[in-house]
């Protein structure tokens, strides 16, 4: 899939009405049911929420899917439970820690870093710059 085919059609995309908490919620909801409505739709939704800078380093889509399926990020796919810390916001930047319990019962904590986009198709929307295993 090329950058011209971004965002993935018929899946959730960033909205100017969503704050950082809602942007993370949409991604987690999709990842928890990764194969609904079709295989890897959850990961593709996360790709839709990835900022342009994030996509430059993690894309294209097939590479992004492989990254999320790697051992480092695998607990996010089809997780059982997510416990979220507070959103720490500083103007156009926000962070939130999320601890997920994966399908195998193991837990992993990630820090989502988001920013409001100043240019492009999703100008004014919160998008994910990074998700780090902490």
**Helix-and-strand structural type:** alpha+beta
Mean of pLDDT: 95
- Unreliable spans are none
- Taking the alpha carbons of the first and last residues, their distance comes to 30 Å
Judging from the principal axes of the Cα atoms, what is the shape?
A: globular
Work out the helicity level. 25-40%
Largest β sheet strand count, sense and barrel closure: 5 strands, antiparallel
Beta-strand proportion: 25-35%
Helix-strand topology string: HHHHEEEEE
Q: What is the number of beta strands?
A: 5
Radius of gyration: 14 Å
How many helices in DSSP terms?
4
What features would you describe in this structure?
The chain has 134 residues and is α+β, with helices and mostly antiparallel strands. 28% of the residues lie in helices and 25% in strands. It has four helices and five strands. The protein has helices spanning 20-32, 41-49, 52-58, 61-68; strands spanning 81-84, 88-90, 93-101, 107-116, 126-133. Helix 1 runs antiparallel to helix 2 (41-49). The longest helix has 13 residues, at 20-32. It is globular, with a radius of gyration of 14 Å.
Overview in brief:
With 134 residues, this protein is an alpha+beta fold. 28% of the residues lie in helices and 25% in strands. It has four helices and five strands, in the order ααααβββββ.
Features:
about 130 residues; alpha+beta; five-stranded antiparallel β-sheet; 5 strands; about 30% helix; about 25% strand; globular
Annotate the secondary structure layout.
Layout: H1 20-32, H2 41-49, H3 52-58, H4 61-68, E1 81-84, E2 88-90, E3 93-101, E4 107-116, E5 126-133
Helix pairs in contact: 1-2
């Amino acid at each position: 899939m090329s950058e011209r085919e971004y965002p993935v059609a018929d899946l959730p995309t960033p909205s100017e009405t969503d704050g950082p908490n809602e942007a993370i919620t949409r991604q987690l909801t999709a990842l928890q049911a990764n194969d609904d409505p079709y295989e890897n739709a959850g990961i593709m939704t996360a790709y839709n929420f990835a900022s342009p800078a994030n996509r430059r380093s993690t894309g294209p889509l097939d590479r992004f899917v492989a990254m999320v399926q790697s051992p480092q990020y695998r607990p996010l796919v089809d997780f059982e439970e997510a416990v979220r810390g507070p959103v720490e916001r500083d103007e156009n930047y926000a962070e939130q820690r999320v601890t997920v319990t994966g399908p195998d019962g193991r837990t992993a904590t990630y820090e989502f870093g988001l920013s409001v986009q100043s240019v492009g198709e999703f100008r004014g929307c919160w998008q994910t710059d990074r998700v780090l295993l902490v």
